[in-house]
Amino acid sequence: MNKPFRPGNIGALMDEYERASNDLRKLILSFTQEEFGKILDDKTDDEDCRSIQTIMNHVVAAGYRYLNQINVFLKQEQITPNFQVTSPLSAIREFDKMLSLTSEAVKNNLAMSYEEVLSTRMETRWGLYDIEMMLEHAIVHILRHRRQIEKLTQQNNP
Question: In the chain, how many domains are there?
Fold first, then answer.
């Protein structure tokens, strides 16, 4: 199977962002509406981590924050997200919309030189970041929450 790869360093990270997203997408679509909304961790102080629904709401919201930071790096217009995560399907729809907007934001900057990447480095809410670091952070965020959902569902269904 020949898979198209984006060119460049930013293209590679976008490919990996989509790859990590595919794993999360498959997992989310495996849940019923009841499972999606069920409180899985009633002891956590983090409201974003109580159910699959709250985790996915957090994942989508964070994805928009990463997108907006990428837009700052690239001197592009910020996005004002308006979304609701109420079901597995709506979570995937909203997640895919955010991912598509991220892909669109970087499409003209897929093969940035080392110097161009360094020129995007600035202080952000996460510390000193550049566009590569932001995409890496976004990828790992997806991986961590996919794992969290897998772990919570396993603990609640021994």
Answer: 1
Angle at 25 between CA 106 and CA 53, to 5 degrees: 105
The one-character DSSP state at 49 is: G
Q: Which domain holds residue 20?
A: 8-156
User: What value, to the nearest 5°, has the Cα angle with vertex 67 and ends 133 and 134?
Assistant: 5
Any domain includes 123 = yes
pLDDT tens for 56-107 read: 999 999 999 999 999 999 999 999 999 999 999 999 999 999 999 999 999 9
Q: Would the pTM of this model clear 0.90, i.e. be above it?
A: yes
Q: What is the CATH number of the domain that holds 100?
A: 1.20.120.450
Please indicate, yes or no, if residue 2 is contained in any of the structural domains: no
pLDDT in tens, 20-70: 999 999 999 999 999 999 999 889 888 888 999 999 999 999 999 999 999
Pairing of strands 127-129, 122-124: antiparallel
Specify if 51 maps to a domain.
yes
